[in-house]
Amino acid sequence: MPKLAYLDCPTGIAGNMCLGALIDAGVPPTYLQDQLALLGINQEYQLRVESVNHQGQRATQVRVNLIAEKSSVNNDPTENKRHQLGHRHLPTIEKLIKQAQLPTRPTQWSLEIFRNLAVAEGAVHGIPPEQVHFHEVGATDAIVDIVGTCLGLNWLGIDQLYCSALPTGGGMVKAAHGILSVPVPAVLKLWEQRQVPVYHNGIDRELVTPTGVAIATTLVQTFGPPPAMTLQQIGLGAGTHQLPIPNILRLWIGEAVGSPDAADVPELETVIVLETQIDDLNPQAIGYTYDRLFEVGALDVFTQAIGMKKSRPGILLTVICHPEAVDGCETILFQETSTLGIRRSQQQRHALAREIRTIETPHGPVRIKVAWHQGRVINAQPEYEDCARLAQQQERPWQEIHQSAIQSWQQQAT
């Protein structure tokens, strides 16, 4: 059964509240500390975990206490101060995460969260994501909160994450760019991008932080009521402030009710679309470029015939990949084609839940890719390579093997 988690956020969400809830649910603090040390910034902070009481309710609170004095690698006081404050650009943060050699899922999730945050901040300030100079959201504590949360979810084995509607909060807050209205611009932009349901709970404080909402809008499947689940565990993460109601994020953990098919929920994931036009490349190089792109993580590659300036025929080469594969795909495009520039955009991909099953056919075993939508199998396709292998071995038409596999699947599925 898929393992589900639900973020119940009556007083909002922040990165340290997520960490507190995960530790309260059983993630060992020592595991987080050891993994986070791989980022190479552990000399900048101390992780403090304690049990606190909010309105008579116990919860776990996590604080990332920054170390004011940090050893310097140069004598530039301006540069030293910048590092002490933890201000970093997106490429610097991505490099830290990629070089840390963390588990695969936390690495991918962390990169996606920071990329989405950069896109939102860039939209607010009117600059590309790579030029965003992170302040609060690029500081050391935010890196710890985001990467630590991804590590914790992976340690618990969470397959699908859900979240309640989020409170807007209100009032004003002091930030690096001055006094801002709550919700702050980056939070509003992230809400807009994911169409998050929001409401006012009567508390005029900053209840949702950019770090917290970036985690939710990137990793959560859907916002709203909790999914059908057998509840097994609750993790309670305390916020920093005392509020009129208990300032606690509640993490519900359990297994999906019914079969895996019934638990399926359409999944939105972040993908990057790379595009470039080419009109002066030997067509034989395109096939080779395809293979290289798939080797470095491209999800899909395709071309379209286009007309370019001076009526020259050309092609539009498009690559779809996850955020962490962008650098590798762009490197291949520059190395193997004649392009001088690549456009980059971020999109949400609606991906069906799927798995590979092996069935027996009259000709031998064939793998079938099965996909679900709303708890129902809507697509089942034999793997091309298996059909081709059997067709060659038995000297039969590929179409015959393929059709036989479909018939065998239909017979076994009924």
From TrEMBL:
Keywords: Lyase, Nickel
Keyword Lyase listed: yes
Family in the record: Belongs to the LarC family.
Organism name: Acaryochloris thomasi RCC1774
Protein name in the entry: Putative nickel insertion protein
Residues forming coiled coils: none
InterPro entries referenced in this protein's UniProt entry, alphabetically: Ni_insertion
NCBIfam families, per database record: nickel pincer cofactor biosynthesis protein LarC
Record bears the keyword Nucleus: no
MF (Gene Ontology): lyase activity; nickel cation binding
